[in-house]
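pinging the channel bc i need a second pair of eyes. not urgent but kinda urgent?? the chain im working w is below, pasted from the shared doc
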Amino acid sequence: MQTGEKPGMYCSTMTSPRHKVGATSSIQYKMSYHKLAGSEPEEGEVNLTHVQAEVPQDTYQRLDSDQPAVPAAMELFKVEVTDAKARNFDGFEDTNKSPLLKEDGEKTVPYELVYVPDDNGIMLVAVQGDKTKPAIITYHDIGLNHVTCFQGFFNFPDMTPILKQCCVYHVNAPGQEQGAHQLPEGKPYPDMDTLGEMLMSVVKHFGLKKFIGFGVGAGANILARFELAHPQLVEGLVLVNCTSKPATWGEWGQQKLSSFYLRGKGMTSYSQEYLLWHYFGKKTMESNHDLVTVFRENLAKSVNPYNLSLFIDSYIRRTDLKIKRELDPVKKKATRTLKGAIMLIGGSNSPHLNDTVEMNARLDPENSTWIKMSDCGGMILEEQPAKLCESFRLFLQGLGYADVLKIRATRPAQSAESSDLHVTSKSKGAPSPVFV
């Protein structure tokens, strides 16, 4: 019983699947409580969720056997009662505490919010880390911002050593940050090419010579456009759910209707459901209700619907990247393609998996890697952070940061030992590692 429960007698009923003789396993039990005597507890005082019990042994017998009867009450141990409350996205405006990376003991992580002006709008940039270290620029997807898109991933323990050796610049599209004021009506919102070009203001403002890009969805498309225009400033790109083609008629119709509702009626259930499908895909929405609930609440409370409608309009009016795979060494120099190292990622159940496959077919195989993450939908940063972190670390080391990122690999709980991961820096132009 939970602490604070009123006196009374309760009877518990428990159901569990059958197990073979002598099996030892961890089982999820569903427990319900029926009052036998005593005063009725107030609402919220009895709140047991996700009761997990480990059964040392299940013994079954035949009815005609002489073996002793199975005890009426099965002994359970290592019972854990956890609350399934979804996490919140906190720390948007607090410049003294980073919502993106937890503090390590007494060492605080430098974090500040900077508004970077541009002729086409103002961008909020969250700077995290020492500005003298290698730069990583992130860009979020539609309906998200620098915290809701990247907080879960950058708070993942395996990412902490990486971030302490880098400085991350989280860029928010104009009007998409938490608590943003509504943009003036009638003023045109930047298109995708302009949004990409606006990153030059960020580069100049912080004096960056080169950076590594990390984009999701619409943000990945924006970073790809910047790399096509300024390849000398980009060392490499990590592109999650990126597409290189214009919107299809089906996507255009759904996004246009969602934008219409956002502009006229605010965040409606139709807009929520479509954006959630855009993030996760159908399978994850049906199986991971807690994670979906977090983002559903964020869309309802933390997003300016009018500003989001403008961003969506720009995304569905995107043009083709016009990149091409050219294997002829003579023609390759004049071919329009992404020049830096590219890691293209898609989830096995992502609604954008085919977009990443098509884009991969248009990239140069010598400097690009396509990764298909198993057992996840479109929100790979939330669903498979360990796999993504490992791939990102290898990607950085493949760019030549093996000596800079002296990181001990943290393994899952079943492995008690940590091992150093040694990856030789590849020479310029050599093929990137292949991930499956």
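so The first strand starts at residue 8 and ends at 15. and Confidence is low (pLDDT under 50) at residues 1-63, 68-88, 91-96, 408-436. — does that match what u expected or am i reading it wrong
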